[in-house]
Amino acid sequence: MSFYTSLNGLKNSQTELGVIAHNIANVETNGFKKGNTQFADIVAGSAQSDPRMIKGIGATVEGITQNFGLGPIEQTGGALDIAITGDGFFAMRSADSGNTVYTRNGAFGVDEAGFITDGGPNRLQVFPTDADGNITGTTPMDAQIAPTNAAGAEYVGVVVGADGVVSASYADGSTEAVGNVALASFITPTGLKQIGSSNWEATGISGQANYGAPGTGQYGSLMSGSIERSNVDIAEELVGLITAQRNFQANAKAIDTATQISQTVINLRS
């Protein structure tokens, strides 16, 4: 029995080492959220067992949870570099599949068609607004900047306010609201599915997305010209790495000890 108990311990430590290694590898990934390995003990006993004689049979990985704590905010000066200073996710709709993904990485740009994207097929979702930036609908849509305004003046730049209003500037000095950034929230954000590139998908555990404007209710305001960095604390991860390594070594030693005891018993009987 001790062999299997220690073997489970080895596997658990290996899982924790993998999670920590993944965290460390993404210390420079914008919008990344670190993972934490959660363990639970395993106990087996029947209804007839004396509760004073029940012993544990090891541990198991109960889950790998994500920590959605706010990461450091780095000022970049980019007009379409946007950080969320509180709760919420940017909603991005794929032009290829039509699926919506969610991210905290606000490094955006404008493609050749005027859509605000993450550099790939995903387009930033905004609430429709009137010319003054007042929200006129609650269904998010793709953020698209017109190359010219009604007077024929060419597009020259874009700004994003703390309240989420995206405003395009034109050569004649006029500005025009493109939309208001739609932030998403979830009942259980730890239930979101990681799909890479600092993106998540909604699942049955996370629940469906609820949308709101920045700076309202539970949603954080936006900070233009800034990017949210990874929330990985490298010093904390290195300490965890040492602890996981010691746990791995201890379980390996337990297997070695159990082997020696078994060998001694076999020698006594021979």
Automatic annotation (TrEMBL):
> Which Pfam families does the entry mention?
Flg_bb_rod, Flg_bbr_C, LlgE_F_G_D1
User: Where would I find the Flagellar hook protein FlgE/F/G-like D1 domain in this sequence?
Assistant: 83-168
Q: What is one GO cellular-component annotation here?
A: cytosol
GO BP terms: bacterial-type flagellum-dependent swarming motility
Q: Show the NCBIfam families listed in the entry.
A: FlgEFG_subfam
Family, according to the entry, reads as follows: Belongs to the flagella basal body rod proteins family.
Q: So what does this one do?
A: A flexible structure which links the flagellar filament to the drive apparatus in the basal body.
Tell me what this protein is called.
Flagellar hook protein FlgE
